[in-house]
Write a structure and sequence with these properties.
Layout lengths: L18 E3 L15 H9 L7 E3 L5 H6 L8 E3 L6 E4 L1 H5 L6 E2 L22
Parallel strand pairs: 1-3, 2-4
Antiparallel strand pairs: 4-5
Length: 123
């Protein structure tokens, strides 16, 4: 697993407050491109049962150890029978048992309305 370093000090590469909701999923994952590093890892970890929703679990190291703030956690809601898989990066990198988590209940939270995006049109 390769971590990308970004030179822009305003760039924050970790997910915050992602909301996945109201989706329906069909048959997928039957022909994954396992030549790509992440897809190959996911295919191996899922034992060929590719998930509908996948999270690589990569966060700042302090959050991987101590947990992500509640208001920044991923929220899943109303996605039908969607399958889920999250990697536990530290367990994976250190070859500990149970490097994946398929239990999405800890991510089942109320969806919060987003603030409108305003674009300053300077015509």
């Amino acid at each position: 697993m390769t971590l990308i370093k970004e030179s822009d000090e305003n760039y924050y590469p970790y997910p915050k407050s992602i909301q996945i909701h109201g989706n329906r999923f069909g048959a997928s994952g039957f022909n994954p491109d396992t030549d790509k590093e992440l897809a190959g890892i996911l295919y191996e970890l899922s034992e060929g049962d590719m998930p509908d929703i996948f999270w690589d679990g990569v966060l700042p190291i302090s959050q991987m150890i101590l947990g992500q703030p509640e208001d920044e956690k991923i929220r899943l809601n109303n996605n039908g029978e969607a399958s889920f898989l999250a990697i536990r990066p530290l367990r994976y990198l250190l070859s500990f048992p149970n490097p994946i988590d398929r239990d999405q209940s800890q991510y089942s939270r109320k969806i919060e309305s987003l603030q409108p995006v305003l674009i300053n049109n300077s015509e």
